[in-house]
């Protein structure tokens, strides 16, 4: 970062010393994970820049937008309807939860057997090192898993304003009615917060903005089907991660710029790895910035990741919101249907997820699936069993890796992934 | 057991050898935990008898009831509305989940970090040692916690018939509508199963039967407020456990018989412990038969447990169903309202629970609370933090014990409980 952002961070209430420690780890980790990848698309430079300014320029933009009267909504989950936020000229940003930070402090509030993502969110908040949290006018929680649902009851006392979105557990008519009511209530809350109205035009604008972002990700996903892979899995994941932070219009254009370059590469049969490199699909829990542990191991071992069936990935972006409605009610219905289609493991049953994994694996030419479970994430860890059985039955080799943000098990994971990659080569 | 039940067990499909192993552990464990307690009420003999015949005579009764055309509904949770089952002349029974059995087999289906209760249920089913499961015409699951919700997706392939009841996560109007729809659907399912109709008379009969059982438990709970305590916590828990297994009419009469005896004891100022013995309230996760680990430790160390804020305890029995409705719809509304009032940690927020703990502690004269969390039970383990803080703020010493069904931590728990009891004496 070229500018001195310390006065801004200070004004946001960050603990500058602790924040320096965080940046001192993040920068080198990013450099060693991303910048030395061979044959990277030149257009990834934009995303390098975004990451280098993720606590700087982007936060400055948020602060300026707030000064101009816009509201910033912080969220941890792909169930928060960005359409509504954008329709009211708000900004939706993901919050820091992808690394261990102040874990001891977090464990004063949470049982040790809480997933790393939740502990991370608490740690960042308690240590005052997440500028997105500080810049948010409201944090939106959601009743997804037990861990998040119950920890928001505690988190509400750690942040100035927390709004919790209720969610159903089944997708029948009552579940849909519950989700619709939750979205209507959230819309009214956002109207109050922003002083603006959810009109037909506003909703159509919000839907168009998010759909454009999703469509760009769909284009990227399709291009990753080429062999040789035109882009690394780490870079694909990075774009899916930045999806939650960047300005949506600029982000969409930048993804398309990468896609343009990838199309040229594909035409030249040029890739980041040789043709025939073992191709792996990742499926399971979300990987928030800077959680690059497992993909870095996989790609260092000579395989390439061709897709992410994850909230930070295809699960989060896969369905567009129908923009055909002519009334606020019809548009809200379309938004509700779009989010109800997310095949998150919090739903029961959740049969469409494994179909999605299978269809991704086939269309992307993946020879194997690595199922990523965050330790203590019961929904994905339990669903992993049936998913693995079904994939193996369909002839798709599957490896289950359950881990957290720690580095203690890296050696063990390497050994297992290496054996798995050999199986795929065989 | 005097009769040879082996032909019956065999017909029910039990694994006789494994079942012998189970009974060989259960019998002595019961004897050593219960029968040597000093100054036990004579009327507890009935419950000793029930426990000695819990896999014998009671199962024979179920088999005979089935032959007479009645249906047996097995359940794991206090959210399954017994009123509906009884209204249709069915029998609701709790299923085995209170002990470790065939854990290695269960862990082939479930992540290791799954709570002992769920693993126990899988172990009993896989090892074919739970005659209640075998005798059930249908097993009813419910979307309470992540662990149960997701593991029922796997459990359904291990049992002949599983019905899953959907539940809300919040108690607002949409949550209530969802619960009502779930109960109406379950009622229709039970009508199909039994070939009977949910009429006003049938529902009133069902409500009256369950309310009578609950009222008997309320009477017992009130009598446990006396000092010296007229009955041990272990025996109080035992009655709360047998609540889920026994014939409701006979059970109700037997609880009243104990209460009659306790009233005489109280009049004579006679107790199971000396006056002034430290009095403890247990709060938290349910303890299913034969999970007597923590209460046995507490009472062996010279304290007495005066109440259980638990699903197997006051949380499960505390609210009566209003029987004032004159139509099926009105009676269903009353049933829905009764179950929605349960202050289980699956709800968010769940503020009434800590009020209930406080009110129980005060009315029972408890000097301290031991919060019991099953390891990996996120809802109760996370809620334990705020509950403990609030109780301590109200001057009620609180000890958090998180454990499972294993014996490895008994020594450590003893040390902590001993220090806590000393604190209460101080």
Task: Give a verbal description of the structure.
2 copies of one chain form a homodimer. Chain A is built from 19 helices and 8 strands. The first copy, chain A, has 426 residues and is α/β, with parallel strands linked by helices. In chain A, helix 9 links the parallel strand 3 and strand 4. In chain A, helix 10 packs across helix 16 and helix 11 runs parallel beside helix 13. The longest helix of chain A has 24 residues. The interface between A and B is large, with 46 and 46 residues.
Number of strands of chain A: 8
Rg of chain A to the nearest angstrom? 21 Å
Q: Beta-sheet strand percentage of chain A?
A: 5-15%
Helix content of chain A: 40-55%
- Name the structural class of chain A: alpha/beta
Spatial order of strands in the largest sheet of chain A? 2-1-3-4
Main sheet characteristics of chain A? 4 strands, parallel
> For this entry, what is the oligomeric state of its chains?
homodimer
């Amino acid at each position: 970062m070229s500018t001195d952002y310390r006065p801004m961070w200070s004004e946001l209430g960050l603990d500058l010393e602790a924040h320096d420690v965080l940046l001192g780890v993040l920068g080198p980790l990013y450099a060693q994970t991303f910048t030395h990848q061979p044959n990277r698309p030149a257009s990834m430079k934009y995303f390098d820049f975004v990451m280098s300014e993720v606590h700087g320029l982007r936060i400055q933009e948020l602060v300026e937008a707030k000064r101009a009267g816009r509201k910033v909504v912080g969220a941890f989950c792909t169930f928060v309807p960005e359409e509504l936020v954008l329709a009211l000229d708000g900004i939706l940003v993901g919050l820091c939860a992808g690394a261990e930070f102040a874990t001891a402090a977090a464990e004063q509030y949470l049982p040790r057997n809480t997933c790393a993502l939740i502990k991370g969110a608490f740690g960042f908040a308690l240590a005052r090192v997440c500028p997105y949290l500080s810049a948010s006018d409201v944090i939106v929680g959601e009743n997804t898993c037990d861990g998040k649902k119950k920890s928001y009851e505690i988190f509400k006392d750690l942040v100035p304003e927390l709004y919790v979105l209720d969610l159903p557990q089944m997708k029948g008519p009552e579940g849909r009615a519950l989700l619709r009511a939750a979205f209507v209530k959230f819309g009214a809350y956002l109207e109050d917060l922003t002083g603006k109205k959810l009109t037909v035009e506003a909703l159509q604008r919000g839907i168009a903005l998010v759909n454009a972002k999703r469509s760009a990700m769909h284009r990227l996903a399709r291009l990753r089907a080429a062999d040789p892979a035109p882009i690394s899995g780490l870079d694909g994941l990075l774009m899916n991660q930045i999806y939650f932070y960047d300005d949506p219009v600029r982000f969409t254009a930048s993804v398309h710029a990468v896609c343009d370059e990838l199309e040229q590469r594909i035409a030249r049969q040029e890739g980041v790895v040789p043709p025939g490199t073992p191709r792996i699909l990742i499926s399971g829990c979300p990987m928030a910035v800077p959680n690059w542990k497992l993909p870095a191991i996989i790609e260092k071992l000579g395989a390439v990741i061709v897709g992410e069936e994850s909230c930070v990935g295809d699960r989060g972006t896969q369905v567009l919101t129908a923009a055909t409605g002519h009334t606020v009610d019809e548009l809200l219905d379309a938004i509700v249907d779009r989010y109800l289609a997310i095949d998150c493991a919090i739903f029961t049953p959740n049969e469409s997820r494994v179909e999605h994994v299978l269809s991704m694996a086939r269309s992307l030419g993946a020879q194997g699936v690595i199922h990523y479970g965050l330790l203590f994430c019961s929904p994905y860890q339990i669903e992993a069993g049936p998913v693995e059985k079904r994939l193996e039955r369909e002839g798709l080799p599957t490896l289950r890796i359950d881990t957290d943000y720690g580095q203690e098990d890296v050696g063990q994971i390497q050994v297992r992934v290496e054996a798995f990659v050999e199986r795929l080569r065989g």
